[in-house]
Amino acid sequence: xxxxxxxxxxxxxxxxxxxxxxxxxxxxxxxxPNHWQIVGQKQLSKVIKLGIDQANSYGLKSKRExxxxxxxxxxxxxxxxxxxxxxxxxxxxxxQSIKNSFVKSRILYDRAEKYMASxxxxxxxxxxxxxxxxxxxxxxxxxxYNDYYLERYLHKFFMWFYPEKYNAVGQKKLNEIxxxxxxxxRKYDIKNRRGIIIYSSMxxxxxxxxxxxxxxxxxxxxxxxxxxxxxxxxxxxxxxxxLNFLAKWGERSKFELxxx
Length: 260
Fold this sequence. Notes:
It is a single chain. The chain has helices spanning 6-31, 33-38, 41-57, 63-76, 87-93, 101-119, 125-141, 150-161, 163-169, 171-187, 193-206, 217-223, 231-259. It is mostly helical. The longest helix has 29 residues, at 231-259. The N and C termini lie far apart (60 Å).
């Protein structure tokens, strides 16, 4: 009789998981070409691992459910499931009354599509306009702030560069994002107003844990670099990485428009 030992089962499971990860990478390469070009295969592999773990923690385990979940991570940020800007996601994922996992993932994806329609617009035109505003004037808006209370200034800044998201998320939730950003920057020993403004704007644009997101590893590399002792230097390096990020996505957006 042919007997499969436990060790062999583990090998089969490991092989199947690697094949699944490889197929998901190919899916991203085909359907998320900008992410593939800008984020890169190495970091996207980390996104996939994180996505599988997150999806499984919510009872989403089928291939289709995980594909949908990882797609939302790429659209909304890798920690969209706990981001107060999209608190509907956490409510759906933790809704114990939804017994069928695929129904739950479908409800989540449908709700996300409605959100993205209002925040991103057709062909991501709202998002592209927000990126263009930042590319053009971020230096001005992260420098001229002396006459404003920080919270009031951040609301003005958010509304200026991404009004569609501001209106969709709402002032109350963005108040919480501002509180979170000041707590996060304190953890990274950034206490100057310019640093807090830059950090807050990326939380608003990329997600509340952009500093831990494999899609934006440049942020974590700067913020966790213990050799940068001066907070002004850390702020300046973060600012330069933000500019590089915006430039890359801005160029990809132009390429997409030309290719249509």
